[in-house]
Every structure is written in structure tokens, then in C-alpha cells.
Amino acid sequence: MANFFTHLYQRLTTNTQATIRPSQSTNRHKQSSLTPAVGPLNDLPPEANELLSLTPGRIQQLQSGQSTELEAAISSFRTGLAQIPVQHPERPWACNYLAIVLMKRFDLSGGHEGLNEAIALHREALDLRPPPHPDRFMSLDKLADILKTRFDLLGQLEDLNQSISFYQETIALLPISHPLRSKFLNNLAIARVARFQELGQREDLDISILLHQDVLALRPGRHPGRSAALINLAHSLVTRFEQSGQLNDLDKSISFYQEAIALQPARHPDRSQSLNSLGSVLVTRFEQSNQLEDLDRSISFSEEALALRPAPHPDRSQSLNILANALALRFEQLNQLDDLDRSISFSEEALALRPASHPNRSQSLINLANALALRFSQSGQRADLDKSISFSQDALALRPAPHPDRHIPLGNLARMLRIRFDQSGQREDLDQVTALNHEALGLLPATHPSRSRLLDGLGSALEREFQQSGQRADLDKSISFHEEALALRPAGHPDRSMSLHLLATILRTRFQQLGQREDLERSISFHREALALRPAPRVDRWTSLNSLANALMMRFHRSRQHEDLDQSIPLYREAIALQSAPHRDRFSTFNNLANALTTRFQQSGAREDLDQAISAYYEALDQLVSGQPPICSTSANLGRALMLAYDSSHDSEYLETAMARFRVAVTCEFAPTHERFKAAKLWASQADKSSHASALDAYQTAIELLPRLAMLALDLKSRREALTSGTDGLARNAAACAIRSGQSDKAVELLEEGRAVFWSQALQLRTPMDDLRDVKPELEKELKRISLALETGSLRDESMGPSDAAQKEMSMEQEAIHFRRLNDEWVATVEKVRQLNGFQDFMRPSRLSSLQAATKDGPLVILNTSISGSDALIMTLHGVEHIPLPDLGIEEVHNLVKLIQHATTPWGKRSFLPEADRAEIEGNLQRMPVFSGPLKILKQSLMARHGRRVSNIRMQAEEIFQHVLAVLWVSAVEPIVRSLKLSVCSFLLTQFLCFDLIISPEIRNTAKFMLVSHWTIRVSPNTRGRNIPHCRAVTISDYIVSSYAPTITAALRTATPLSTASFKMLVVIQPETLPYTTKELQKIEAHVPSEFLVRFGTPGAPASVAEAVSHLPPASIAHFAYHGHQDVKNPLDSALILEDGELKVSRIMQQPMPNASLAFLCACETAMGDKYLPDEAMHLGATLLFAGFRGVVATMWSMSDVDGPEIADKFYEILFKTNDSTMTSTSRPDTNQTARALYLAVAKLRAEGVSFARWVPFVHLGR
């Protein structure tokens, strides 16, 4: 009986050949027919005999009948199988028969349980046919087939691996001449292709091709299975071409498809599929060669295939999709609307033929979405784009996790949303793009063939993230993803030019940020390689032309090589010629061409270039629809060109039009904030320079954008980085403009709104809301919830190490999206509050009427130095008075600060200058202004003593200090003193001075030496009234007790009386490296009752970061006698260096400090600000001030260890006395005397004759 079964199996399976269709990732071999009945077996029950007597006709009858009949038969067959003993020779056949019936039910209903049961039955049959059973090969083949089916359904790799293993064993059991060998080789090849598509291992694909070649060799001439073998081999070659880009594989595949079609007459059932396959491959070759003949032939073959599949042919939808895709591609080449209309029509028909339950409906949705997106790119009809996104979303919903092809709709939806983001600038779309690409990548192994496309998609999304936020981390990650994608597309890969283009573009962007020449050179190299891979008339050639020209323009601006400029302009013109209107990117190329022509005009003065540039800018704007983000940068560029025309012609029409274009640019709501800010700054500078009436509006607009640059959704480090994008000096220039306009009160408001934005943002989250609680408690509760979440989020760690997993990166992106949405909630909720009566100014910048409260004890003076000069503003309760300071210009300030830098460097403690510094010092001295007789005598004395030769200069730091202070006194301080009518030892009310200077980036970190940049100075009279010797020059300290605050608002904070019940003073010292700190503690203990002190750094109480942090919140006074460190690159990493690590600014900011009153940082550099952001007061002292301490004592540079005990002794002696009596356990320190206490402590140190560098750095911050 077994031999008879074998013969029949051979005959039936030989007539059923499996093929792989190019439109499907896999296609399992159909189950072969059953053996005929062999008659009843007398030794078995009736149910068993019925099972073993099954015929193909009976199976067909059951499949086409009622489901209840099929279920009843399966139940009976299960009973029959149970009646057959395990050792019975017919049981393997019974297992096979029942498994086949179960698979028929699976084909009808898709139930997984039946599939799993069928696999178990085939495994049992295989176990019952151990080697060398003659029928074992049949069980191996059946089990391999069904495991492949389950893999296709569930994507479990173990099933596929077992299937391949069983196919291999099947082939090993058969002799080379066996008639079924080609069938088994074919199945193994198909499984290998499937594993390649899953893992991307090239070995599987190469072996698959070899196996298909063996199959073809076994089916020569007119063999009935030859056409199927040709098609399968062709398909594998196409797959390998998609990986390697070897055109030889593509050409061979076309040849094999053509031979297969020749073997299939018109009525052949597989002819339509072969035509579709050939049409698809011809499209692929067209995309490489741009030979329109291939595209036309593809459409012709696809139309023939469609004609062979009239409705209701089950595969008509597949032919419709293939033809629709080819027509869409031809539309992109020839711009014939009929092709696009037919493409959309065919895609819609295909979708209608694939109902919700159809396994390929998702692909039809994607095809229709792509066609609609193409029509949108031409017509700009938003409805098409919205439908495209909707269809893409539906496609994704049909492939839920863990669908093996889920990455396809994920990537497609991401692409559609990216298009909408580019049009509308909606941040939510960009967030989704990033998240979708991350999810898609997470579904694919490192070697998956689709991974490179998704890497490029994610890299492009992060590039747009960078354009929105300006965050360097987004830029670096984008480059990393594009580099990984390029590595997966080696030379010859059909998509290599795309990866080259994307990587080159983002490298160019990083060059713009960092100025690293290597990035620009790599960008140009990659763009040239991409252009070479896109010869005319390739449809994407224009992108490489445009991008290469952009890179050459950047190199021209760097090196001024006119060859680069001259090369770029014809490249732009060629790109425009390839973009037939209304191409969606045509505006960009026009804008770039205009930029290049403007630049050439600035070089050559040829008016023709400028006129052409202005015309090109208008052309670019004509391509855009109102509200599109690129309107911002293009309008700003046009405004800049119009100003050039105004400068050369003085035609006021150019000026007015330019100002109007700048206004359009900054009001483009959907443009990235940093682009709007850049446009606002350009507007302000051009309007200010030309004295246009809109200058103040421009400055106000730019300043209002600062909080958006440093939005609350960012972590602290990113917020600080966002403010480095050219924000420094903006408020000072705005104030100067207001002063020149006669609006001194507006100048004060602009200075207050435009400075310390970092801290203002942080403090908004801690704004008291008692008044709001009384009116709208639900809004108060909502704001508090959002505030807490945003403040917590701002402290998150956004750093990525090289070993961090992709999961962490994805988590960070999801966090960023979450906090951006929280930020949007915050903005919307604050706006709701402002709609309430009496809350119109809720959390808005302070107006002058509010700021004037800071002058209740006396005037407040602001010294503003900008690029246009210096001015003093005296604010009182009655208004603001302007005092011009014509003798203190920006260059004088620069020179003064350079001299102070030299005086405070280590050589300042020695008598002689290093040789390298002497020339610079002499030059600065020569440039110093001379305003008075005494100053002239001092300068002449210095120069005479040091001679005219640089090598003879021997200047001590003291002399530099004297000279700088003299200049500052004459040029700035004395006019203010005269205006305030201050006198030595006078008993005037407390006053405030605010000095505001602009300092160039390379020197501003020491700008707080005398005129402290952007700080409010509280001035108290010397109430003790000491005698000043007439032989000594009068100084500012003879008139005032100084205190500093980052903003006027900070000076408005009121003190909370200290309670002795909760009063604690934290003292942290470092005696190991700073031996005088032990004496410093002893001095403190002499004035402060022991029960109030909490000490660390003493025996048994190590000064750890954890201990310091845990004891900061309950402390009323905190005294740190430790090394301090100012981190120039990241001020938030500035720190006090404790025993076990660094107590960083960022860590201190996390602590609530409800009892905080005074912090004394007796350490180095605790009031040294950020070199790049002097307006922001980014140092330890300011951190404690904004964290809640009412006052802070800090140092502007390194202090001497020996001075700590002396300063602390006098300071706490004054502070802890009440009515001239020593403090008792029931009294409390008078922190209102903090500034005076420091003044007297420093005066005592100065009286001892120490150098300027030792007593000057101590400053009091706060009220």
C-alpha cells in the first residue's frame, strides 16, 4: 500500500508547482491532493475507515458545504484517528489526512488552533516514519510546508528555521534523478528568500538563487514547470538587485520574465501574474536608467495583465495597483495629468476590491495615499494630503503588532505626516513622525533590507526637530542615523544617492552651527557623488544640483573663493529648469538662487545681480501658500535684499517694502521659532540702522520670542543652549533704541524682559497663585499640576552615551514629545487665566509701574552699554531720567575688561608680565581714554615708567586695577554720583544702582569686576561715617554699600522673618585641601550659638554631596567653604567640589528651599557667569538666589584661602548682633544687614593692605 501511495503522491505533487510572486513577500506551496481511498480495513472501526477512505472530492464537498457539516466531519475524523493504534502502519496516513482537513478549515476561517493541531499531527506522522522509512520525505515536506504557513501568519522565526531544516532533509533523502527533487528545491528556495526578507542575511538570498538555478536546470525545454522556475529565479534576482544595485541581476531578471511569458499562451492561468512581474521590474530599471521606454513598456504589460483579469477576477486588485504605480511614476516624468488621474482611479478601484478583511487592503491604502500625496505636491490641495494621511492611518490600523510587515505602514504614515509638517509646521505632526520612525526601526533587525530607508526617515525627522528647537543633540543623532543608512547602501546600491544626499545636507547644517571645515568638505564630496549617480534626465537630479550649490555657497562664505560662488549660480538655474511649475520645492530653489545672486552683488556691485535676486525672491514667494513656514525665511531674505537696494539708491519705497517683508516674516506663526527670531533680529538691526519707526516693534517682537526659544518643555541644559543663538546684547540694543526714541521707561521694560530669560522661565513654574485660587481654583490646580510636571521634566537627563541602547533613545524622544505637549497645555492654560477679569497681565513681563516698587527706598540706576554707546537710566517712583555717558564706548569697555582679565590671572600675583602678554597690555593701555588731569597723570606715569619698548614693561596687577577703576570712575560712576547728589558719609535713604554692559564673547566672563554686567546694585550709606584721608582718592565705596541682583524683579522680593524655632545654619568646610577653613568654622562658632549649627567637613561628619543636598532645604543660612569650579562650556555643571564629588548648579536647582535666607559661598568663582550668556547669570550664586535664598555672598574669581576666616569673622559678627549685643539663643540674625556686613568685612580686609585681587571679588547678591 505504501508503494501505491508514494506513486500517487509523486504524480499529484509534480503537477502542482509553487511560485513566488513579486508583489508578495512569501507564498506557501499549496497542499497536494490526497491519495484515493484504499478500501475499508477490516481490523479498524468505521470512523477510522472513513478517515482513511477520504477522497479529494469528499474534501472539496466538505469545504464548499455548511460549516456545521465540516465541523461534524472533523469531530468524526478525530474519533477515527483515536481508534487507530499508534503502532498501526496506517496511522501516519490518518494523521496526514486529518491535518489536511484541518488546513482546509484554516483556509476558510483562519483559526490558529486548527493550524497548531495540524502541525502536531504532521509531527506525529514524521515521528512514526523514522529513517530509513521510505515515506519519511513526504512527512518532512508536509511539515515544512505547514510550518512555513504558520511563519507567514505569525512571523515566528523558529517556524521558518525548522521549515528550512525539514526541506533540506527532504532533499537529502532523494536521489538527484528523483522526479520530485525540483519541487522540493523550489520550496527550500522560497523559504530561504523569506528568511532573507526577515533577517537580511545575504547568504540566504545567494543560496536561494543557486537553488532556483538548479530547479531551472531540472526543468528544461517545454517542461510544464519551467515558466514557474523562471519567474521564481527572476524574482530572487530582483531582490538581490535591491540590495546590491548590480544592474546585471536586474537585466537577467527581465530576460527570465520575458522567457516565462513566452512559455505562457494567452489563456495560461499564470500569464497575467508574469506580465505584472515584468511590468514591476521594468519600472525598477527605469528608476535606475531613466529610459522612458522601460516605463512605457511597463505600463503596456500591466495594461495587458489587467485585461486578463476582468472583474470579478480575484487578483484584479493586484494588477490595478501595479498599473496605478507605473502611471504615477510616468506623471512625475511627463507631468501629464491624465496619467495621475488614471493612477488615482485605478488605486481607488483596487481599494474597493479589497474589503476590510482582505489581507492586502493595507497595501492598497498605502498606494492610494501615495497617489493622493503626489497630486497634493502638484496642486497644493490640502484635502488630498489629509485623505492621504487618513488612508495611511487606516493602513497602519490593519497591521497591528506583531504583524511582520507593520514597519511598512509605519514608515509611510511618517512620510505623509512629514509632508504635512513641512507645509503647516504643526509640531504634533513632527512628534508623530519621530515616534513612528522609531517604532518601525525597533521592529527590524540590524540587517533588514528596509532598515536603511527607515534610518533615513528618522534622520530627516530629527533634522526637522533641530530646525525647530536648535538642540545640538538632535543634529548629532540625525547625522548618526544617516551615516548608518549610508553604510547599509554601499557602492552600486540603487538608493545610495538618496543616503548621500541626506547625509551631505545634515552635515552642511552642522557646519552652519559649529563651523567645522571637515563637515563642509564632506558635505560637498557627498553631494558631488550623489549628483554623479543622478545623471540627466533623472527626476531627482534637481535635489543634488540644489544641495551642491548650497554647500558651495557656504564654502564661499567661509573661504571667499569666487569659483564656488560662480559655480553655484548655474547649478541653481539648472535645478529650476528641472522643476516644472507648480513643483512643491520650486520655491526653495528660487530662494537659494536669489541668495547667491545677492551675495554676488555684494561682492561685485553689479546691480543686475541684485535686481535678479529680488525677482527670484518674489518668484519663490509666489510658489507658497499663505501660512506656510518657508514664508518666514524667504520674506526675511527678500527684506535684506530690498535694504541693499535702499542703501544703494536711497529710494524710500525699498525701505518701506523691506520693513513690510520683515514684519511678514516674524508673524509667520508656523515657522520654527529660531527662524522667526532670526528674522526679528534682522528686522530690528536694519530698522534701527535706518532710523525707521518700526525699530522698537522689531526689538519687542524679538524679545517676546526669547521664552519660546527656551521653552519650558526643554531640559535645563537644552534651555541654556537655546539661548546661545544670538540672544546676547539684544535687550541692551533694544534699550538703546528706546532711549534714542525718547522712551526711557520702555528701555527699562525691554531690559527687564530681555535679560535672565532662563531664570524667568524657571521661576514662572514657582509663581504664587493665591489670587487665582480665590477666583478659579480649578485653573490654579491645573496650572500647579502642569508646573510640577514641567519642573520635574526640566531636570531630566538628556545625555546619550555610546553604549546606550536604541530603547533609551526612543524613550527620550517620547519624553520630549510628552513635555512639548505639556508646554502647549501650559501656554493654553495661562491664556485661559488671562481671559479672567483682573488677570490680563498674569505671568506677563513686568511693566514699569510694577518695577518702580524697587525704588521705594531710593533711586535705581541702570547703566546700559550697547554697540551704539552708553547711557544711564535713573528710575524713581516718579519716572525714569536719562543720563548720557558719551565717554564710555564699547571699545573702551572691551579694553578695560581685557586689562582686568590680565590682572586676575595667576601672573597677577607676580611682579612681571609674561613676554607673550606684554604687547597686548601695552596696546590696551595706549587705547585707554583720558578724561581728566589726574587720569592723564596716572597714564603718563605708567607709560613713562614702563618705557616705550614692550620688552621693558613691568606692570603689577595693582596698577592695572588702579587704572581701570579710575577710568570707570570718571566715565561712568562720577556722573551718576553727581546726578544722585550723593556725598561722602551722607545719610541718604537706601538706593539701588543697576549697571548694564555689553561685553564681547571672548572677554565677558570677567565683566562683573567693577561694573557688574546686568546686576542691580543696592546702595546703602555708610551709617558709621568714618573719616576719609585727604591723601587718598575718593572711591565709590565711600558713598555706597553695594548689592547685586540679576534683574529688577529679583530686587522686589521681600524678606521672610527668620524664626528661631526653625532656624538652622549649615556650614560645610574642606580642611584637607583648604586648611584655613577650620579656622573659618571657629570664627563662625564664636558668633553663632551651637544649637543653630549643622556642620560637615569635621571629624565624624564628612562633607558629602548627599549630606549637603539633604540639609539645604531646612537651612536658613548656608555657608560653604570649599573649592568652586566654573564650567565655561556648560555653566549648569559649575559646582562646589565636595569630598565625594561635585555639588552642581543643576543639582541645587532641584531642591525646594522654603526657609532659605542667606547663602555664603566662600569659594572660588561662585559669581563668575557664562561667557556666552552674561545676560543670564548662570553661576552658583545666582542659582541659590533663584532657588529661594534672599541673599548670597559669592566671589567673581579665585579667592585666597587665608582671607576666608577674616571675612567670615567680621561678617558674622555684624550679622549676629542685635542692638549692639551678642546674639542669644532666643534672638535671630538680622539678614537685612547682609550687604552692610560684607561691606565692613571687606573694608577690614582692605585696610590690612591686601591687593585689589584679594578684596574686590567678594559680592553680595540679592536684596
UniProtKB/TrEMBL annotation:
TM stretches of this protein: none
Polar residues: compositionally biased ranges: 17-26
Coiled coil: none
Record Pfam families: CHAT (PF12770), TPR_10 (PF13374)
Domain CHAT: 1044-1217
InterPro entries the UniProt entry points to: CHAT_dom (IPR024983), TPR-like_helical_dom_sf (IPR011990)
Protein name in UniProt: CHAT domain-containing protein
Gene source species: Piloderma croceum (strain F 1598)
Lineage of the organism: Eukaryota, Fungi, Dikarya, Basidiomycota, Agaricomycotina
